[in-house]
Specification:
The structure is a single chain. This protein is mostly helical. It contains 14 helices and no strands.
Length: 280
């Protein structure tokens, strides 16, 4: 009886801690959404933390019309989606070659690629800016897409390498005996098994590309090509007194990451257990 009561108390404490953590994680988003429907008086004095007394949708209208946030949103979608597609494709092929094939210097090449994780962007930003200028890519979306792909390759390759190593070689050997080529093994056998890893890496790459500011600040000055983080930085300076419109702009900017996570959350959970399932 005492043990049963003890277990109930421990579970209750655990649920309280988890509920508090969940509330602390979600409330900033809720508070931002509330502020996007308030005016400055409500935000700073009369209704700081509560539900909006009046839904001021004109804040969203101002964010769209005066700030042109939809253009920045479109640019960020293009940049992030392109970065995800090419980063995942290149990282998968590179990791497959180093994890599943035997060739000279494979370990050295893989180590060299992973070293990119330890190089801060600030160190290479000047050579990058010069290279972008010499290639005449400045003030184009390619000036951020290509660096974003390179920046994310190291970590993504490491993720796929560990995942490929967990897959039994017998699967490919059986396919090879049946006459499957290396490309068929890769696309029809290996790729379906690493879908959870693809989902996890896609979220990581997408969020990195979506939130990146420093590189875009250096290589993009054309207002029509600015991404959301860069646009929001200018927006907060231009509309510093209109906090409702600022919150509306940030709420719109938060939609895509939330949707991406909701779409791939189940695959991310599977990624934690799929390796053991494949080995078994």
């Amino acid at each position: 009886m005492i043990n049963k009561v003890k277990n109930i108390c421990l579970k209750a404490i655990l649920y309280v801690i988890l509920a508090a953590f969940s509330f602390a994680s979600v409330y900033p988003l809720i508070w931002m959404a509330f502020n996007s429907l308030k005016n400055n008086d409500e935000i700073f004095s009369t209704n700081v933390y509560g539900f909006p007394t009046h839904f001021r949708f004109e804040n969203y209208v101002n964010a769209v019309t005066q700030f042109d946030i939809l253009s920045f949103f479109k640019n960020s979608i293009i940049v992030s989606a392109t970065t995800v597609v090419f980063t995942i494709l290149i990282a998968m092929m590179f990791s497959y070659a180093t994890a599943r094939m035997k060739w000279k210097l494979s370990n050295m090449v893989r180590t060299y690629a992973i070293l990119g994780m330890f190089i801060p962007v600030q160190i290479i930003i000047i050579p990058l800016a010069i290279l972008v200028r010499d290639l005449r890519l400045q003030n184009t979306l390619l000036s951020v897409i290509i660096p974003y792909i390179v920046f994310n390759l190291s970590f993504t390759s490491m993720v796929f390498y560990a995942y490929f190593r967990s897959i039994p070689y017998e699967m490919e050997e059986s396919a090879a005996i049946d006459g499957a080529s290396i490309y068929r093994c890769f696309f029809l056998i290996i790729m379906p098994l690493v879908k959870p890893a693809v989902a996890s890496a896609s979220i990581f790459v997408f969020l990195n590309a979506w939130n990146e500011l420093f590189t875009a600040l250096v290589v993009i000055s054309n207002n029509k090509l600015k991404t959301l983080p860069l646009g929001l930085a200018y927006f907060q300076g231009q509309f510093a007194t209109d906090w409702g419109a600022s919150a509306a702009a940030m709420t719109i900017a938060s939609i895509a990451p939330i949707v991406i996570y909701l779409l791939f959350s189940k695959q991310v959970e599977k990624a934690l257990t799929i390796g053991a399932a494949v080995k078994g």
